[in-house]
Amino acid sequence: MSFADSIMKPATLGRIGVKNRIIRSATCMAGADEKTGNPTPKLIEKYKELAKGGVGLIITGHAYVNSNGKASPRQLSISSDDNISGLANLVSEAHGTGCPMIVQISHAGAFSITAEDGVALAPSDVKNPMTGRPCKGMTISEIHSLITDFAKAAQRAKVSNADGVQLHLAHGFLLTQFLSPIFNKRKDGYGGEDILKRARIVFEILEEIRYRTGEDFPLWVKISVTEGANEGYSSLEGIRLAQELARVKVDAIEVSGGTFYGDKNLSPSRTGIIAGKNEGYFAEEASAIRERVGKATQVILVGGLRSQESMVNLFDRGTAEAFSLSRPLIAEPDLVNRWASGDGEPAECISCNACSRTAKVGIVYCPVMRDAAEGIWAPPPEC
User: Fold this and answer.
1) What range(s) does the NADH:flavin oxidoreductase/NADH oxidase N-terminal domain occupy (predicted)?
2) Which of 58, 130, 131, 248 could form a disulfide with 24 if both were Cys (CB 3.0 to 4.6 A apart)?
């Protein structure tokens, strides 16, 4: 099938109607108010630009569900009812262009920046593998409170008129840490040798979200199908987890992988991606998941997608039903409109990860494309 007849056709994904099968994957844009976590006018304008750029659906950058789960400066918050109005404004701007929006909800756990002067929460008493700082294992009471915080966050997303929520189980944040044998050494009901036992908190969060938001509110998850770290969980375990997520009727599973503390060659944001050669680096795992979950739960692939041809081939092979992009849409917010116009050239993103460093100075942007637009020539930044 052609790109226009497959990827660009309207569809229903995870119970949400979309105009095409290209999704803006959750990307922390570092544009929220530092004190409140509410989206600033500049951040809202960035999301509006994305929505106008033609994507079928936007997943917001991860929003922290309580104050001790903040991962980075100027991150979105969904931890208080005071955040509802700002989120509603953000959603309204996307809807005004005909683009649905999902809010991704998260907790940083061992990597929380709010614990710089204290001890970060984690599944067990372990050391942060990146900093060596000790982490405090959560009590049962703290786990139960966290489950409630996630569910209340989902309620706030629903009140803000978002089209659904996505639970962030990927890339090394707290729920990944519960899945991980590196972080989760618990001997009680929230730990164990089997990943499904370590995932108990995930299933309890999903159950509580369903209870508080109703069966009709779309509930998606994003998973790292493999931890990508020594002594971490494997892709076989991640695939088993995805099967169980489908069994409890999550509406869509976005398949990513790796963590920021694991092997860089297995990370979720890899460098050296060349259109038509090494795109879609989690495609094999996504295909295995789709074979096992059936039609009730839809599979979305993210990671190194750059060309129409690769997405069409993956779609035709049944690897996934939709495709998520992040870095290409930082470089070209109107990429999907360009493709829809008949320009079949791959995304201009060179996969250098320079955009990730711009979060320190303001809302995330692509310095390579900015310099090109200003007529400045510079070699690609070091990766």
Assistant:
1) 7-341
2) 58
| Residues in a beta bridge with 18 | 11
382 φ/ψ angles, rounded to the nearest 5 degrees: -60, 140
Instruction: Tell me, yes or no, if the pTM score tops 0.90.
Output: yes
**Per-residue model confidence as pLDDT tens digits over 169-205:** 999 999 999 999 999 999 999 999 999 999 999 999 9
Q: Give residue 360's pLDDT band: very low, low, confident or very high (50, 70, 90).
A: confident
Domain ranges of the chain: 3-359
Q: Which distant-in-sequence residues (6+ apart) come within 8 Å of 379 by Cβ?
A: none
| Rounded Cα distance, 11 and 323, in Å | 13
Sign of torsion, CA 73 223 176 67?
positive
Strand 252-256 to 11-13 pairing: unpaired
For domain 3-359, give the fold. Answer: TIM Barrel (3.20.20)
What span, in angstroms and rounded, lies between the C-alpha atoms of 352 and 366? 10
